[in-house]
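Interim report, section 4.2 (structural modelling).
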Amino acid sequence: MTTTPTEADEPSGAGTTDVPAPAGPTGSGRAARVLTYVLGRLTTAVVSLFAVIVAGFFLFRILPGDPVRAMTEGREVSAEQREELRRQFGLDQPLWQQFLDYAAGLLRLDLGTSFQYREPVVDLILERLGPTLLLAGTGTVIAALLGLFLGARAGWKPGGRGDRVNTAVALFFWSVPTFWLGLLLIVLLSSGRGFMPGLFPTGGMVDPRASGTLETVLSTAQHMVLPVVTMVAVIYAQYLMIMRSSLMDEKGADYLTTARAKGLRDTLVRRRHAVPNALLPTVTLIFLNLGQVVSGVILVETVFSWPGLGQLFYSGLRVPDLGLVQGLFVVFAASVILMNLLADLVYPLLDPRVRP
Amino acid sequence: MSTSEHRNPRPRAHRTEPAPDGPPPVPEVSARALARRRRREALARFAREYARNRAGLVGLASLLTIGLLALTAPLFVDQAHLTITGAPGESYQPPSWEYPLGTDNFGRSVLDLVVWGARVSLTVGLLATFVSVTLGTLIGVTAGHFGSSGGVGGRIVSAVLMRITDWFLVLPTLVLAVALAAVLPRGIGTIIIAIGLTVWPPTARLVRAQTLAVEARPYVERARALGGGHAHVMGWHVLPNVMPVVLAQTTLLVATSIIAESTLAFLGMGDPTTISWGGILEAARTAGAISAGIWWYMIPPGLAIAVVALSFTLCGRAVESVINPRLRGQS
Amino acid sequence: MSSLLDVSDLHVTYSGSAGDVPAVRGVNLSLDPGDTLGVAGESGSGKSTVALALLRLLPASAKVTGRIMLEGEDVLRMKWGRLRAVRWVGASVVFQGAMHSLNPVKRIGDQIAEPLLVHALVKPDRADARAAELLEQVGLPASRLRDYPHQLSGGQRQRVMIAMALACEPRLIIADEATTALDVMIQAQILTLLERLVDETGIGMLMISHDLSVLAATCDRVAVMYAGRIVEQGPAKEVVHEPAHPYASALSAAFPKIGDPASRLAPRGLPGDPPDPSDPPSGCVFRPRCAVAETVCATVDPPLWPVRPDRYGNSDRHAACVHVGPGEGSGDGSDRSVPHQSSSTEETSR
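Predicted structure of the assembly:
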């Protein structure tokens, strides 16, 4: 516990001030600290991005030995066509030249060309970005709200009935493979077999017969139900478990006794005092686990033929279209790193203690 | 309260406290017998504590049953019936007395397929876990040991290792595993490597935290003062004390690995010549059984994955609660 | 009798996996408005448990019996709604280590205003102004309202805690180790502040501390606790300067008096540890550590006896030691024994 000399003033007269102890937030000093913090985070993110670029190159150019052979395996391709492909991918160049070309391309937002679609990968990605953001965004937000809400309730009374039920359900969903849950929902709710009518479409994003804005929106919403439910079911479980354990860690905190002593009812103690503190580690972990949202998106889009990046990735894998897969690998990894950067920059707004 | 504490679950002292250094005052044979007895007692205590966790017992029982079924599968499943040409039944027969879970599009018994699939799924899950746990433990112990007592060079090594771990931790696991599986030759080995190389980071973090805690104990200090080298400290003192944490983590990781295996197989990255649960589901989807509503073809394999993954998770949580009393009585 | 706080026969037992552990075993306390009562004791003596029990703030695993009369109402028998209404309005608490007792992610202004709003004592638009007043009352500028706890020093945080405790103008303030984590200079400031507030407002204060010298300087009366019981109580000066119970004298000697050579030379501190509350020794619980223990101490668990009673057998000081009791431990003294219960009642009516 540090105290400044000014603390020692005779305090008896009300209004005597002991002036700022640990560095009051004043003008330029604060700006410099904010800048240092932001620059530090940016550097980390840039280094990570560079590592992703190197990994992408290593994975798809070096590891397969001959990428063109890997892509054309089991296909009727003449030797000339192979040579043509090699030239097209720049594989006739020395490795360092290939890497420089690839890195320079990335700087120009050139992710290469798709072997399968004969189109720049960037164009393909931009085309499908919207649907993916719609699906992943909706799913993540619902899963986070649900997981945090249920986790806070479960962790407040650990061992209680609500906790046991919540934990059991969460563990079950956590153990179920995402894609199987999707398939199950299709069989149950959209195949229209047995006693259940086909309530929802089996795949796609919008009925091609839909015309007009309203109809399109409604049709999209109907197509979204099952994919979103699948995503939420698989992701919310881990949010619940994280929130539960961090609330359990907060439960013994002294400031909760203060809050109780003030006469707050139990729900207010939890909502106003315990939850805001338990959220801090939870938010960090949620962003750290964003990679799993990407995994979820790939599987859900594949199962429900949702025309987004995940399905594009899957179609690239089936060929295999290494150029496309490489481009998507870089995009997926980079987006997770950027989201983590965002989390680092936003975190101080939530926790005043780490505010620079 | 700090976030770092959450990422590195607080390591605890464990009940097995070996003190292998220092000359034993009694003849060697009896010392060894003593050590053996102490280990037996520790094991018995562990079993007693574990037995108190009902969910853990259920998980263990279901794993033993499934494991036995997978091992003895050749005794009651005719392998010839698992080939497309040797299929005994008609296409898409619903469940009946002869085929309790119906048949697939080639007329093979789905029950036979699921039982046989357990062999590949469990093997891949266990081996992939072994790879990732070994990798994670090595990296974690090294980073922890040299981080706390390695001089400047060691600290740099440790920092670099942790940076790499964090990088892998953030990366989308599935994308990386799929990419690896896509560029390496098809086969079970590739799947094992693809999973093993991508799911190790949490283990490394956990082991590092535990290593740091162990290295701070007085007897490690003493071993170092007596001239114990890095290898001695890591092998004799750190590793045995890290093992309980690793055990719990391993059990939980098998669940992850089995789900990952099925996912890779479903995405078509698996070996088409072997039968695994994920592979059956992929076949069901490509055959159009899903939109046709052939529920008996797709429900059993997925349920099998879920049951095995859940069982491993329950066992892992039980082990965790025995090791870390702070968690006890909470599930 | 218009006592502000009257605790009688308070027992607190923690039940855990290792069986029941008694933490407080039959404590009687009473406090009049405008008075200051100190409770001293080492950690584990049960003094903080007493403080938390007064507003039923103990965890559910703690079983509390006895009577806690706060302004004539028994806290232990209140309904939840009534209890919540009494909390902070009837009695508030200045917790130990304000570091953790303030919510780290909330502005201190909001935390000070919170009880006012919860108990609907001010309109929401007036809350800030009232919080500013309170802050100024404890010597902090109103500009601090928008600060977070970590931006304040330890002493400042304790002032915030006090401002918060004053918010609802309670009749009783419980100061639980309010100055423990502070350095000596700040400690003196906080004590002066508390004394001034008691003088100005006429509220009663229950002050809990392990530091007998702090209590001697602030309190009118002092009770010394050991192993869940009060072993001596009486006017603060007398208990500190000429303690009757051997534990009280050890505690008093543990804090040297500056400039007194005798205290420098006298053996200080106490051998051994406090007893294991789940397995207390027979007879007097202090016996294993007592320098003047006799054989009789192993069998007799002495109640509170009046120290140097007047000819009616009354005294405003009591101690639980056979050396204090009638006959100086020679006889059984049962014929003249003053039952523990009545002695404390008399003591309140001094």
